[in-house]
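Quick one, tokens below:
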């Protein structure tokens, strides 16, 4: 926890002069999505408030916002915890991804498309794989899909999927085989990028749909086994 709080203190500058609950929730959501706070982690008001330099009331409002987004849970007389997802949660996350991400690709319109963000995420994933950092590969994979959604140029879609991708990271934390989970999708991200670079939007959508189907099956298989073990 000490290392996470040190990193969190680095985010203090992002608050600027308007230390609002929304800004705090943005920071915590990003940290959850990046994997700094695993599922089941108790979030200390004193420690996090001190790291960010915000009041207890501001932090509690941020916690409330993230609870509404299903990223945190409040347990009576125990405190606030990062949520542990159920298998049904994971399945619903992937249904949402399929609906939104495939619709984004289908609705791209005429090329060329702005693909620098996707290309950067692919490079990030390859670099992390060379270094054997499979947690970072998972982060790069989420960045890839976030950049894919950003092609819609819709603030509302971006906002919706920020929470979905943060929840997805909670599922990834439960999977204890990160290389097996993430490695196959490095090449599949490349294939989707190349299809879009080649102006083959229909092919990119088919690749993406197959990708999400396979990813759901793999994650649920491992997740169901792990949840059963924990029970």
């Amino acid at each position: 926890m000490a290392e996470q709080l040190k990193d969190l203190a680095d985010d203090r500058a992002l608050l600027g002069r308007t230390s609002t609950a929304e800004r705090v929730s943005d920071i915590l959501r990003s940290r959850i999505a990046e994997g700094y706070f695993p599922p089941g982690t108790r979030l200390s008001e004193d420690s996090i408030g001190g790291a960010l330099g915000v009041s207890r009331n501001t932090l509690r409002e941020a916690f409330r916002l993230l609870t509404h987004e299903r990223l945190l849970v409040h347990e009576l007389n125990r405190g606030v915890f990062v949520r542990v997802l159920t298998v049904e949660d994971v399945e619903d996350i992937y249904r949402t991804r399929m609906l939104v991400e495939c619709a984004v690709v289908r609705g791209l319109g005429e090329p060329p498309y702005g693909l620098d963000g996707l290309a950067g995420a692919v490079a990030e994933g390859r670099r992390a794989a060379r270094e054997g950092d499979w947690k970072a590969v998972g982060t790069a994979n989420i960045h890839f899909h976030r950049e894919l959604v950003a092609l819609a140029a819709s603030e509302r879609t971006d906002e919706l999927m920020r929470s979905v991708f943060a929840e997805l990271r909670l599922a990834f934390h439960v999977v204890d085989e990160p290389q097996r989970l993430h490695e196959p999708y490095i090449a599949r991200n490349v294939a989707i990028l190349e299809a879009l670079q080649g102006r083959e939007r229909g092919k990119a959508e088919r690749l993406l749909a197959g990708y999400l189907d396979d990813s759901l099956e793999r994650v649920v298989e491992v997740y169901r086994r792990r949840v059963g073990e924990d029970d």
